[in-house]
Amino acid sequence: MSIYINNSRYNPQLMTAEDLERLFVGRENLIEEVMDGLTASIVGEGKHFFLLIGPRGSGKTHFVHLIANRMRENKETDGKFLLAHFKEEEWEIDSYLEFLLQILHSLGQEKGGKKFLEEEANIRAGYNSKNHAASVRATEKSLIKFTNGKTLLLICENLADLLAGLGSDGQWKWRSFIQEHPFWTILAASPSLSESIRKKESSFYGFFNINNLGPLANGDEVVDLLKKRAIGAGTKAGEELAESLETPLGRARAGAIHHLSGGNHRACVTLFPFLTKESLYELTEPFAKMVDDLTPYYQSRIKDLSPGQRKITSFLARMHKPTAVGDVASHCLMTPQTAAKEIARLGDHGVVLRHKRGKKTLCELAEPLMRLCFEVKDNRSEYLQLFVDLLRGWFSVKELQERHDKLDLGLNGHVDLFDLRHIKAAVAEFNKDGKEPFLDALDDEGRKCWLNQDYEGAFAAGEKLIKERGSEVDYINGVSVASKAGKSKEGIRYAEKGLSIYPRSIGIRNALGLLLLDDGNYENALNLAKKMLAEGFAEDSLYLETRAHLGNKNYKISIKIGLDLIKQFPENTGVYFYLSRAYFNAKQFIDAEKNAEKCIKLNGYSEGANIVLATALALQGKNKKSIKVLKSTKPEHFDFKYYYLIGFNYFNLGQFQSSIKNLNFFLEKDPNNLDSLLLLSVSYYQTEQWEEALTICKRLNELKYFSPANSFLIVLCLIKLNRYIESWKALLSFEEVDDEESLHRSLMVTSELNIIGYYDDAINIAKSAIAFQPTSIFSHTALIYSQLEAQLYDEAVNSLIAARSSVDSSIFDLFECEIHAKDGNISKVSSLLRSVNNDKQIKVNVLQTHLTRIIKIAIRQFGPSILPTYFTMFRKELAPQMKRKIVGGTITELISVFILEFQDTANQWHDNLIKLEESIRDLKQSKLPLRMLRAAVERAKEGNDGPLLELPLEERKLLQDLIVKTEEISKRRSLAQAQLKQWKKEHGKGES
After folding, report:
1. What local confidence, expressed as pLDDT, does residue 232 receive?
2. Contacts from 277-280 at CB under 8 Å and sequence distance 24+?
3. Distance between CA 980 and CA 728 in Å, rounded?
4. pLDDT of residue 404
């Protein structure tokens, strides 16, 4: 047996700071709250006072020592406080003066504390009982002097004993001193609330922020504590124990320790030194040693109780469940009032727990191990009931019976009467109540493993349950998890053995069918279905056959058999789920939706059907309904596809931030999922998070996902980030447009390239888009637009002819207007505009953009003198459009054109604007845009923003925003051109 520490007593004050941190379990939130409060007290004005209440062994000492160590290392409070950490038991404090001197003494134990010890020694040396008050004042003055703007952090354990030592007079003096000199912050601990804190008229009523330190909450926290202790031992035996505690068997037995100890930290740690991997199976010796160790401790606590309290405690020790106060009173020959009063006091001392159940109050021992005191001293008892309870929680009845037989026969060489008596009692209790606590706990652990997808653990638990209990349910569970645990052969073997014991078990047959399906062994699953049919299990046979064909991708056959199953057995609701999946895989989404809804309606709720339904809805474009279905599911119970579907729906709804949140959550579990990465890259782009979008695009390339769509998005991100040379290099090796998504992205790229003046690249991409989809109007318009921007008018004419031969649209008449504007053929422009006047397919914004471009091209050739002529013509030919404010919108767009291209001809614009105003004076829609255009021209002419001040505030703000936006485009264009020119200069024309 390996012993990891020499003393089984738990002494946090002797442990290193590292060990205290390592062994801390279950109270992270509370320790952060206390640390924050103490820190705030030291660096701020407000002061906090914390009191921890918990029975002995609940971890109070560990907690306060951990706080003390953390505060010593706290950089935020370094040099701003003094630490006085009292010993666990301050037996010497019997007066207010002694209390103050002990603070000086504790300060002296810290680094650099020599001056405090000298001060304490001087006060003690000069003490005269006749002048006691003078010594008190001198000590108070010393503390005031030493703090000198700092905060005094007092940490004391067993506050109840400290207050008792101070007495009522000393308590009030301390409270007054704190109020007069508020440099204090306190962390105290106590097993119970003393009257000095509990009573309203007492000195410290309402003073402390009280926190109850409860026991370890469950077996998992016990495992955590024992595992940390084992690993910290630094031995091979410790490592083996830690590994054993992580298994379902180890965790199930840790649950027995939790029950035995009541979650008491000290009791759990007392057991620890005797535990090894082997002792998880051999428990007698460690338990006996624990009894020897703990009995004196509990006896000393019981001696401190009054006779009536001991009587109640003795009675509760014999009870194995919470007992009503009335029953306690009756047995102990007390009035109910007296019993309730004494039980309340026992509760304050941490001996008894009270539970409200309706009008009744039930009570029980707070620490089950306290029963030991009474059982050990009870000469009439042949065994310790606690040990019997522990044996039942530690072993199966089969294991106990085997051990009993060996001991009874003396097979191990001697008869261990202590062990034999307790095993007999444990077996007798099983024969009486039929319960197996260990196997029940192991069953629970196996279920937890299944939910946490720890299939190996679930299989290990199932294997043990089959061996020890071997119920039909145990075989079903063991077979069911076998495939997921990679134990298919063992699962098949258990199925065969289970069927030999339970030959009519449809549950085992179905579990075997599920195993074969999970393994992809569809042929054997179909063979099993045939056997089940021959054995008279027609419904289950058809059900298995439906699923086998579904797994084998025979969707039509699966649907046919499923529909036949429903006709024969209309109560079999599960088949609707598999029908919905079969329809879904056959891309019959409407039928998939209907069957999934039917499954949910009949079953009340079905996670799998919800996912199929939500997916079918999403792929039909019913995104809002799909989200509603998904939000009614419980995503923690199935795979993370839930979050992908939520993200997919939000993406299609254009709610990109919500899409980003859910897709990132999904990618935490499946970081290389291409579909999610593709949606995420576009979502980041749409929300103007260019850098993040670029990172995802590059991640896709790392995963060997090379596509024009991704390449185009990389170019777009680089352009948006003003990294123009990188974008241009990316364009040099771009792949041809080859699908609808890359077509869409390519057109976005041409638009961005035209903005920064990379016309040649925009033209090449547009041509590639046309080659992929010759009938795409957007591809043709992108090409013609790029050629006109590059002032390649002859090429634009050829492209226009080709476009009209492929697509019939009035939009091309507008492009032709732009070409004729270059030649000054205003009559042809007028005629073409007349032809598109009544085409309702052309939206207002599209029309006014083309009108603006017509003006821009004409001004390039003939100067701003053409302005009155063209706008007069617009009014004439587009008369029905006047109500749609087409002229006003065109003038507004013209402001940006002027800022981008024509500011150096501001004088000419000024003169011609007067004529323009006269020609359209009667159009109210044009007055505001004209004022803004005139102000923009005057601003360029004078070289300052003065002319803008003549506009009303709202108009000025509109124009300023437009100027900023347009000048930003101009800067981007200049920067892009400069970067490209410099790059070509450095690398030579050939390489470019």
Report:
1. 72
2. 277/237, 277/240, 277/241, 277/243, 277/244, 278/1, 279/1, 280/241, 280/244, 280/249, 280/250, 280/253
3. 8
4. 79
